Amino acid sequence: MPVGSLRVVVSSVSSDAHMWNLVFLQLLLEEAGHEVTNLGVCPPDATVMDACRGADRPDLVVLSTVNGHGHLDGLRLIRAIRRDPELALLPVVIGGKLGVRGGDDGFGERLLDAGFNAVFNESEAPVARMLADFGAFLRTLAGNLAPREPAVAAGAR
Amino acid sequence: MPRFADFVRTAAGAGVLVVQPRMGFGPLDRMRAGLTAVRDCRASTVGTVTLDSYTRVGDFDSARRALRDGAELNGFPLAAHGVGAVRELLDEVSSRNFPVQVRHGSPLPLGLFRIMVAAGVDATEGGPVSYCLPYGRVPLPEATDNWARCCELAAAAPDPMHLETFGGCMLGQLCPPSLLVALSVLEGMFFREHGLPSVSLSYAQQVHLGQDLEALAALRSLAAEHLADIDWHVTLYTYMGVFPRTPVGSFRLLEDSVRLAVHSGTERLIVKTPAEARRIPAVEENVEALEFAAAVGAKEAADCATAHCPPPAETGLLEETRTLLAATLELGHTVGSALVAAFARGVLDVPYCLHRDNAGESRAVIDERGMLAWSRAGGMPVRVHRTDAMAAAPLTAARLTRMLSHNERRYDREDIAGSLLRSAA
């Protein structure tokens, strides 16, 4: 795998059947050189968690949801993930339309507190800003995971 | 004939387009108020009860809990309210002059059908393919078996339910019309095969008026051929993809869907509201959209009488659809088994659909003419126009976004251009 390339699981949440957001994210991530496993729509919590275990463990889970139940489904799922010893430290982010009302719902804080590494709530920020933030998050994560130049290489010169 | 179909037929006979909202609320009193407002507005309407996402996936407990805790639901929790309450609600608001359709989106709706039949619901919608591939993870053969039992239950009801196919709306956008029409007809044939006496065939407005007119003409021809011995009508959906953000752009898109309905002889139209780009619309916004659609419909029907009908495109859509139908039906002894086999072999393959039982080898784009076209056929007997630069260009996330927002841009731009013209005048 090339340097800076992440293994990413893309998924909806249990009650959300919207698909285009997932198709888009897969193309976006693949163009940036990442490797995507797309779990598709309406995954039960266990499906998402099982897709992240053992040898399948990705570098990042991206939950995308637009049906307005994200603040409920996302909260339940991230609590289950953080309670699970194997998955407690897995980077997980959520984005989309997370509430029903479409205004500033204040869900972001609650979701971050519950254990998401980042929240991209379309109700709280314009889509372009959200995608820029998401891109920056990916670069930071890829940078942190990229193997550093081995120290001996410098020392041996 | 079920009173739902009877109402639509009577209106069509009088040259009136029936209009219908999408609408669903959690609490009974809000649902009742919504239905009453739709019934009493200045339009020929049927009512809609859209179910919430928990109920759709069979998670009745979560729906019950949300209802009890007063949490916001995105639709009506049918099972949580139960047969008695639903029957009471329908007795109160629905009638021969205001039949109500329950809309659910469930791939395994047998439990919901039991409640709907027991509560005396007039009509519902969906289909073994259209509510399986885009909306869940249920294997297609399992959904097909479940839907067969649903149809038989609905057909055996004291007043058989009217059933609408959702096959003409796959993924809402970016599916070429030949496949939409084929799936709508195939699901209609599946309903007929399982005993339903009255069905409607859906089609969703796409990106080009001429192409949509050609598609709806093909749908009517094929329905007449394959459903000759049962009652049927056609239902058009106002564009289901990414919606314009400006109110004027939204109303212009809605207006074009009414025009499409009237000039294609479509009997029923399911409208969208300007609010839906951002959130679930309020009752007043639905009423406004319904009354607007009815007014445009009346004007267009009058224009039609004096022969101002726009012409359909001539892209060979009927022939391509016929080929898809024939290639599917030869794969099984029943429509259900043929559908399952066709998807397993990729003879039917919905572009961009992530479901595991969809081959996922086909691709569709908006071509140089502004019409939907195949850019990759996969295993389907359809034509790819290799000379079309748009059809040949690579698919990127940015391009997908541009195609998904094609109508949004088109209609919002009209708003901007219109305001410039107005200020110049």
UniProtKB/TrEMBL annotation, chain A:
Domain B12-binding: 5-141
GO MF assignments: methylaspartate mutase activity
Keyword Cell membrane: no
Enzyme class: isomerase
EC number from the UniProt entry: 5.4.99.1
One Pfam family it belongs to: B12-binding
InterPro entries xrefs: Cobalamin-bd (IPR006158), Cobalamin-bd_sf (IPR036724)
Keyword Isomerase: yes
Keyword annotations: Isomerase
Record-linked SUPFAM superfamilies: Cobalamin (vitamin B12)-binding domain
Name by which UniProt lists this protein: Methylaspartate mutase sigma subunit
Native organism: Streptomyces pseudovenezuelae
